[in-house]
Amino acid sequence: MPHPNTDRPTDPVPAAVEPAPPGPAAGPERPRRAVPLGAFRVVVGLLFACHGASALFDWPAVAQHAAGSVGSWPGWYAAVIELVGGTLVMLGLGTRACALICSGSMAFAYFTVHQPHALLPIENGGEPAALFCWAFLAIAVTGPGPYALDAALRRAR
């Protein structure tokens, strides 16, 4: 339709404001990314929860580092964070906050327990702490995905 004062057709969207292209979460890429990211979240959460259960209850295996008595700092608190945080991340419930807390707990463990012995994780035995720290930070940034309990609860509302 031409503009009333000119012969030029009117553009429904001004040239300076173009519609944004769809983001990475839109289109056919989303299902392909959702499954591996959800699987990553579940596996990391499960392994972390098992680590906490092992430290607290000697189950499913005897832990290398026991949690100590109830309320002892930092071992017992770290084990509770591992068990509860890992379980919640695995289920996808409060994922971003839980993953951030788990990441911080592993950063604390790395810098207080491992790093004083040597700089690199390969030298000081801190590979699991460093890997869990970065894995949980990645989960906190990317979120739980559509196959999480949070997403199911949102859909149910």
Can you offer a commentary on this structure?
With 157 residues, the protein is mostly helical. It has one domain. The chain has helices at 29-57, 75-91, 95-114, 121-124, 127-142, 149-156. α1 packs across α5 (127-142) and α2 packs antiparallel against α3 (95-114). The protein is elongated, with a radius of gyration of 23 Å.
List the helices and strands and how they pair.
Elements: H1 29-57, H2 75-91, H3 95-114, H4 121-124, H5 127-142, H6 149-156
Helix pairs in contact: 1-2, 1-5, 2-3, 3-5
Rg value: 23 Å
- Uncertain stretches: none
The averaged pLDDT comes out at: 84
> How helical, in percent, are the residues?
55-70%
Multimeric organization: single chain
How far apart the termini lie comes to 43 Å
Strand and helix order? HHHHHH
* Tally of helical runs: 6
Structural class: mainly alpha
How would you characterize the largest beta sheet?
A: none
Structural domain tally: 1
Number of separate strands: 0
Q: Strand percentage, roughly? A: under 5%
Write down the overall geometry: elongated
Keyword list:
mainly alpha, single chain, 60% helix, 6 helices, 157 residues
What is the compact description of this entry?
The chain is mainly alpha-helical and 157 residues long.
